[in-house]
Amino acid sequence: MSRQRTYLDLVNEVDSFPSPTLSPIQHAERTSNLHLFTAGSHTLGYVLPSVVAALQEANEPHWTITPTSISIEGDTVEKRSKNMAATLERWRANGKFQVCSKGWRNELYSVYSPTGVLYLRMERSGTPLFGLVHMTAYVPATETQPLRIWTPRRNITKSTYGGMLDNTVAGGISSGMSVFDTLVKESEEEASLPAELVSKAKAVGVVSYLYVRDSRAGGETGLLQPEVQYVYDLEVGEDVVPAPCDDEVQDFHLMPLDEVKEELAKGSFKPNCAYVLIDFFVRHGIITPANEPNYIEIVSRLHRELEFPLRAE
Amino acid sequence: MSRQRTYLDLVNEVDSFPSPTLSPIQHAERTSNLHLFTAGSHTLGYVLPSVVAALQEANEPHWTITPTSISIEGDTVEKRSKNMAATLERWRANGKFQVCSKGWRNELYSVYSPTGVLYLRMERSGTPLFGLVHMTAYVPATETQPLRIWTPRRNITKSTYGGMLDNTVAGGISSGMSVFDTLVKESEEEASLPAELVSKAKAVGVVSYLYVRDSRAGGETGLLQPEVQYVYDLEVGEDVVPAPCDDEVQDFHLMPLDEVKEELAKGSFKPNCAYVLIDFFVRHGIITPANEPNYIEIVSRLHRELEFPLRAE
């Protein structure tokens, strides 16, 4: 716990799968024993050998399995979604994969084809890719106070990253919800922030990474999780005070910039929330070319090109 | 000229070399006949067959040429820089490459090793990679006026991109100059903006791309130019009026946002300046997930991971 993490360490922890550009040999080695989840000539995600083995064992007619790829049968979104649901429901029932049996969320996520068209909907716990929205609510620096960021602590009872620090608001984009509607809904549910206030939040970009799930994410480790996080900033006055509403968050603290930096270095933040804060620091001139030797690598890694199609509805 | 360009078109025009992630087959095809300019086991840049042929023909003892790579002799920065200068001076004198003979700038640029240590200094016209700094000076939106951006037009007589629209301030980072010192110097030289004002500019990130030089860049076409642009924003009041100082720029115009968008769509901006404006639009909530279908691709492409080491001093 006492090791001080650099910003690049924190990026490496999230964008943890080797880059084909920066580490082509390691990337080739790591992908060589993975199957591709394909749609026609395009890739929707990487599949671990353990998942391919489970599909082969079950021998369901709606999967086509080659030595290098898997694909799902069905000529409509509905048919593909139904086939996927059948497989995941079975895994949920027989406990084959913890991410399905213990991690079931009852939330449908969208998987897109590379042309940006909806390919299928599937239960969140089984999806190979995530679209998320994260918002940073902050009080700008004044003459007497530094910039301060509203920082919640996750409930210690949460199965994933319990007790860690989080972004002001964060949530997954369910199928059929727009990015912005998701932000408004989550802001109300997690932080008691009214829609009228959140409508002033500014879209400021998107960060992306290819994450290798570790034990803190719950369920099997080693699963490959490409994620995009749509990023929003909300500048607020001192009169705005977020408060827990559902059971996601324990409390909110208006954390001065230096304390945010210290908690980042201590590894107190949920990793993909640290990622969003590093992007905030870059955009707000807190991390600069003059004070960060790994500036270029950090900024490009924050925006990893993903080989998997992801888009908002 | 009448074709309307999308933001993704403008990104494609700058980041024009195929991505190993998004277009692995095209990337492999395009790189298969290039030599790598290497330093030990690391790559400093891609070299065209025509350049390798010229090196073979000259048969200088300070180049080692293999079937797939070239490297330069010298165990110190000074020796490598001297060897590189000898080759470039010869090309400048004998007119072998227009980029050297006609494009000579008398500016030394730094080339770094992958560990961020200076590897050699070389004349700007021959360098395989560029570090640049670009600043956008803007007047924020008011109740009666939209956001406006100070936009210069390049002198029609310039050999590269003459007559096109530019960013408020832009310049290359010479060896020995820091990013910020370059910004201050260029702001004074190109836009008559005083150092005291420019010291308030905010570092807001870095954009990167791998550009295939076209005829508008001057000299040989097809050369591969990896570039990073350090990006700064400067919020100004109506009282700040930039003015040409050297002969780079014809005039400055305080351009309303909608006009900037129109000129972008018409292709009036120098391509890598359009790139900086698209990043500005993303960070300022002008391009959003709701209004831009290619949002994720645009934001990740703006921050291409480069296989070549680049860093500020």
From TrEMBL, chains A, B:
Record domain Nudix hydrolase: where: 132-277
Taxonomic superkingdom: Eukaryota
Stretches that traverse the bilayer: none
Key words of the record: Hydrolase
Family matches, as InterPro entries: DUF4743, NUDIX_hydrolase-like_dom_sf, NUDIX_hydrolase_dom
One Gene Ontology MF term: 8-oxo-dGDP phosphatase activity
PANTHER family: THIAMIN PYROPHOSPHOKINASE, THIAMIN PYROPHOSPHOKINASE 1
Record protein name field: NUDIX hydrolase domain-like protein
Species of provenance: Sphaerosporella brunnea
Source organism phylogeny: Eukaryota, Fungi, Dikarya, Ascomycota, Pezizomycotina
